[in-house]
Design brief:
GO terms for molecular function: lipid kinase activity; phosphotransferase activity, alcohol group as acceptor. The chain is of the alpha+beta class. The chain folds into three domains: 109 residues, Zinc finger FYVE domain-containing protein 21, C-terminal (PH-domain like); 123 residues, Rossmann fold (3-Layer(aba) Sandwich); 261 residues, Tumour Suppressor Smad4 (Sandwich). A seven-stranded antiparallel beta sheet has the order 4-3-2-1-7-6-5. Strands 12, 13, 15, 16, 17, 23 and 26 form a seven-stranded antiparallel beta sheet that branches. The chain is elongated and about 90 Å long. The structure holds adenosine-5'-triphosphate (ATP). Adenosine-5'-triphosphate binds next to helix 5.
């Protein structure tokens, strides 16, 4: 028998009777060959190391004789081909009884050397008891903590106690004591962790601390974008500790602290709907569909100008990435470099070349900047973006016909083809300057903030019967002032925990690749398959709510006026 092979008696969590088996440890997986006559259906079980989240081995002399030869391996099994729904991933255990204690020890040592077991790390788990519909605590207790128990990780759990508490925690956490900050919540708390870490005087060190997410919010766009389909897979991801680079956008406004985003920025219909969806939080993920539908049938246009920087100018910038801005005064706060901060000065009416304005677009109905493929757990926008490609993706539209906007949201919400419809224009860029307002004139010169609640008076708008609003600025689901805003990309600024099989290192083992490819394919399929029927059902529910909204005429328009403007009569 080769040094990486072992003879054992094996029993599985769901099969009580032990049977003879041969174990082999390769570079990437543990294979269990059970002997004929066992009560286990399959005779060969492959457990990729990427699916092992812990083990138990006899630790002390007082252990019973029999237990000294025992090793228990905890792993996640995917029940192919049913990987399409999150319940396809299942926790399980295999218990091995070796003939001799030395064999058990040799097995553990060999498995460790080959990277089969998770490496020890210190995790700070931030649980938002209010995340989603208040399910985060239950998820932490029933899924996350039981899985972490045998992982070898040192875990500290902390509940967030108020809005933006995670910013304060991340801003103060002792980086010598923590390797990863993991949130059990939605995108909002992860956004706060990013901002807390990057607001620190030692941000250049803090940015290297890996961040992770166990989806327990209502949107969960980041987790879905990473291919994390369940809390179980998310916890496995945390335990295995594989990371990928993560691009970050910075959003600068005059005389305000800078905000950082890992997911999205939006303005217009989608932003209004996202922020307004907070009123329907009790609906869980459905809140976005209902708020979106209501906003769609009361479509507005949002006046302003948007300037873009071509991506190659950002690319050359990326070679000098993460440089510190030289301190100008003792009070000057060091932060990731901004090359275009001067464009926030209102004396600069038009940014110079290579910046250019988006032509013929004084009015928008929606504008979306994305760093990830998903804008929500159930909204798979496009597969043309990666969160580590160093480029910003901008979509915008001036469309205000209700049905034109509704169609992609019903039929293409989960198939990644939303952007292929003739609704939105698509741009790659390295930076964006947004100047909201009819003529770019801010209401408040010191902040450039647009404050008019109902901005409907421009002659051009009146002539076209356009119903306008300054609109809301939404960054990662959080509100920010509607004001002149500079958005820049900081390529690969942070590290995020990702499922190992999606980003495995280059190896030449075809079995590992085949297994991993199957998992990837299944996860992608899972993102696409949720039927459009769900969308139609949601739309039907939303129609009822929306009809009430029209009758109540929240924005002061009568239903007749509304129909006329919607149908462009
Ligand atoms: N103890 C708390 N009490 C009240 N609010 C809290 C508390 N802890 C965190 N929050 C706030 O809850 C908000 C929502 O959190 P989070 O984004 O994680 O959940 P979600 O909105 O349901 O999910 P998603 O952002 O994915 O839609 C955050 O803005 C955060 O500041």
């Amino acid at each position: 028998m080769s040094p990486n092979q072992f003879q054992v008696k094996v029993s599985f969590a769901d099969h009580q009777r032990a049977s003879e088996a041969r174990l082999s440890l390769s570079t990437h997986e543990l294979t269990i060959h059970t002997s004929k006559g066992s009560d286990i259906n399959t005779t060969t079980i492959q457990v990729p190391y990427s699916c092992i989240y812990g083990y138990e081995a006899p630790a002390d002399k007082s252990t019973e004789d029999n237990d000294k030869n025992k090793v228990v391996v905890h792993y996640v099994a995917f029940s192919e081909p049913d990987l399409r729904n999150p319940s396809a991933a299942k926790r399980t255990t295999a218990q091995f009884l070796f003939e001799r204690t030395e064999d058990a020890g040799r097995f553990i040592q060999t498995a460790r050397d080959l990277g089969a077991f998770p490496k020890p790390k210190r995790i700070l788990l931030l649980v938002n008891p209010n995340g989603g519909v208040g399910k985060a605590k239950r998820i932490s207790d029933s899924v996350v903590k039981p899985m972490l128990q045998h992982s070898g990780l040192t875990v500290n759990e902390q509940y967030t106690e108020y809005g933006r508490h995670a910013v304060d925690i991340a801003a103060k956490v002792d980086l010598d004591e923590v390797d990863s900050l993991v949130v059990v919540s939605g995108d909002g708390v992860l956004h706060e962790v990013v901002n807390g870490l990057l607001s620190r005087p030692d941000w250049d060190r803090a940015r290297k601390t890996s961040i992770g997410i166990v989806p327990a919010g209502s949107g969960n766009a980041i987790a879905a974008s990473l291919g994390i389909v369940s809390q179980l897979v998310a916890t496995l991801t945390v335990v295995r500790g594989e990371t990928s680079k993560l691009d970050i956008f910075s959003l600068s406004q005059l005389n305000r602290p800078r905000i950082y985003s890992m997911l999205s920025f939006s303005w217009g219909m989608m932003a209004d709907a996202d922020i307004e969806s907070d009123n329907y939080r009790w609906l869980g993920p459905l809140r976005f569909d209902v708020a979106g539908f209501i906003r769609m049938i009361r479509l507005r246009r949002y006046p302003g100008k948007v300037y873009v920087l071509p991506p190659k100018h950002q690319q050359s910038h990326s070679t000098a990435k993460h440089q510190l801005t030289p301190p100008q005064s003792p009070s000057h706060k060091r932060e990731p470099e901004s090359r275009f901060q001067h464009l926030l000065d209102s004396n600069i009416k038009e940014p110079p070349k290579p910046w250019s304005v988006i032509p013929n677009m004084p009015f928008y109905s929606m504008l979306l900047l994305l760093n990830c493929p998903n804008v929500g757990e159930t909204i798979f926008f496009t597969n043309t973006i990666r969160f580590n490609d160093g480029i910003m993706r901008l979509w915008y539209s001036a469309e205000t016909r209700f049905w034109k906007i509704l169609m992609p949201f019903i039929f293409d919400q989960q198939n990644g083809k939303m952007v292929e419809r003739d609704l939105m224009k698509d741009l790659e860029c390295g930076g964006i300057l947004i100047v909201p307002g009819v003529e770019g004139e801010p209401d408040d010169p010191s902040t450039h903030k647009v404050t008019e609640p109902d901005w409907v008076t421009s002659p051009a708008a009146k002539a076209q019967n356009i119903y306008q609003k300054p609109g809301l600025f939404d960054v990662d689901g959080e509100l920010m002032p509607t004001a002149r805003t500079l958005i820049e990309v900081h390529p690969s600024l942070m590290n995020i925990l990702v499922p190992e099989w999606l980003y495995h290192k280059d190896d030449d083992n075809s079995t590992a690749r085949a297994h991993e490819a199957a998992v990837i394919q299944a996860i992608k399929a899972q993102q696409k398959v949720r039927s459009s029927f769900g969308g139609i059902l949601v739309a039907a529910t939303a129609v009822a709510v929306a009809a009430a909204a029209i009758i109540l005429s929240a924005d002061g328009h009568s239903p007749v006026e509304f129909l006329r403007s919607t149908l462009q009569l």
